[in-house]
Amino acid sequence: MSRIINIENYESFYLDFLERNLNENDTALLLAFLQENPSLKVDESEFDYFSFEESTQLDDFSKSVLKFQGFDQIIDAENIEYFLVASVENQLSDKKAIELQQFLIKNPSFLVDLQVYRKTQLIADSSIVYSEKNKLKRGIVIPMYARFLAAAAGIALFFSIINLNQADQPKSLAHEGGKNPVEVKSKPEVKNEVQTEWIATATAVVNDASSQKEEQRRENVSQNFQFENIEPLGFKSPQKINNQPLLNDIAIAYIKPFAAEKISDDLNESTFAAVEMKNPILPITNRIGEAINQQVEFKTSKAAKKKPGGFLFKIGKFEISRKVYDNSAVALK
Amino acid sequence: MNSKEYNIAVDTYSDNIYRFVLKHLRNEMSAKDIVQDTFLKVWLKHEEIQAEKVKSYLFTTAYHCIIDWINKEKRNVDFEKVSENLSEPRKLEFDVSSILDEALNRLPEIQKSVVLLRDYEGYNYAEIAEITKLNESQVKVYIFRARQALKIYLKSRELVA
Asked: Which of B7, B140, B141 sits opposite A138 (nearest CB)?
């Protein structure tokens, strides 16, 4: 065959060359082609099996494969190998499979070849398993925006704790100084004419342990302030608030000195109603939740007057929150 | 593909990849290294890979790792051992699968790959062509030639009447 050798057809030339079946002209062409494309050259030692006893049969077979025109041709002794392999490979149409069957009935000597071809089909040994799967697995990757969110939540928690400590400070100072426990000096928004009656404090509840402490402290505060005296004003005292089921891990900040004249406008049930919390970044938290396969929530409530707003940040079972009651000022005469 | 889908792929395909590589290399340590390397490469691109195409991607990567490994090692001691065994007087062996293994190990790597992908994984010619970067007709020729070689080897071992 004297044709042009290119990347598309060089393999057929190469196979003939390796089988010592290529004429001189084509051999020269092939060698020139391989010189120009050294990466296509194959190590001849990879063709060991050509030294098998029946290697002469392979030449015929190779030719039949390379020159095979398709399944339309009639099955005969020359191309039978191709049809046998095609049968094993399930490449034959029903018509051709029947034709092959008829051929094998007439030529039973090829039945052995068909049986051997069937045995060449490899079966994977399922007992061989890769024992180090866990080393290959990867942990959950937290996206960068989720990390920023977590950092922001951490910072918010930090400042909320600082704020709460500051809120606690006047009370303790008052106790230490032996003064009236309800009197607070640092109250810039309260005018001189406003008479401070009593103050409750803000608390933050982060976990169960601090929740118990908070409960204890609240009881102390309520005893000190003698809430029974303020019952007639018609709103719920802290004890009653305490009796209500508290939201999980909610911080409460309420009751600051206030002008007695303004009290009547503000004293009602809604004063102590929980502030509605909204998630301002719902798509982001949803996406993080999907990514880490955990429930993720981030909610905030509006700040009330000069008090900071509350927030709730939750990943799975881990939850941090701070909640503020709206219009958190109550004062009594 | 997210990390969850990647981990599912590890559970689903790591055994198959390991068998495929081990059949080529016949060296457990190297096979494990290549499996690890394969999955690492896939992980590095996991965001670009669609979960439903990960199997093909894994086999393609593993195949190229095998080729790289063979190019580095060339014909190592294992192959020499096979040649030595062949020079020994023939024994009557009736374990077809072990003889078939022997025959498989004597095939050129590309033929071994296409036959393994065909028989172990049930890939069609087009899929094998995609993995091995061959065209479909080349795959066909390689498979047919591999089958022929395996048949000759089995017959030469007198395993079949």
From this structure: B7
